[in-house]
Input
Amino acid sequence: MSTSAFAIKSETLTAASEQLQRAHYNRIAADYDAHYGDAYSAEYRSEFIYRPMFEGIELKGLNVLDAMCGSGQTTEFLLNAEAKVTGLDISNEVITSFAARWNGCKSVERSLLDSRLPSESFDCVAVVGGLHHIQPNVAEAITEVHRLLKPGGYFCFMEPHQGSFPDLIRRFWYKHDHYFSDNEEAINLAHLEDLFESKFTFRKTEYKGNLAFLFVLNSLIFRIPLRLKQFYSSTLIQLESSINRLQGKQTSCFVVAQWQRK
Output
């Protein structure tokens, strides 16, 4: 990769929710990267998140913002598809890791609520599991995404969603586990679609996530030692493919959506 990257640092934080997010991810960055960056988690994300999320979009040559990028797991998929990627995250710990790992990409240490990036400058904005960390400012974040997208550009995201049995358990867990920040809450997709129906066309909505989502991708949350994942991950990933065909909104752990700016 080239070394033409540059990094932009943030001087202000625009919302209490993102101050929580920054402190939270600075605190858990090392553990998070280890558990979500292993080979089995990468296989899960590619099969069940990235492929459906970007389906039908020719990413080659597109200018893509990996928003709330962490250390860049989504960026790896995008670069393999020959997209041009900018990483955006408010956590100085993870954006430092991103810049070191993907030194051919631009990196921006700023809030998705106040990115200060040029309007209509991206063909696609991707958010994987980030919106539910900035409650109650999700609508403001999507407004910023709309501003950043070119007309006809794509907003692709994956998030835990309200209205499911897993969310009932998740709400309890959020309150008692230090790996979650105080403001985390699954998104209300129906409400967001009502708010943004005049600004986006909703191209795809798929409800996914069961055994492998819980115990492979989220091994950190269940305190599963990394060395044990090799013994069960492949089996659970195969099972997830079968179970996904049978489940809907009420039983799924997350939603994958693809919106297009009008």
Notes: The chain has one domain: 7-261. Residues 7-261 form a domain with the Rossmann fold fold (CATH 3.40.50.150). Residues 1-6, 9-14 have pLDDT under 50 and may be disordered.
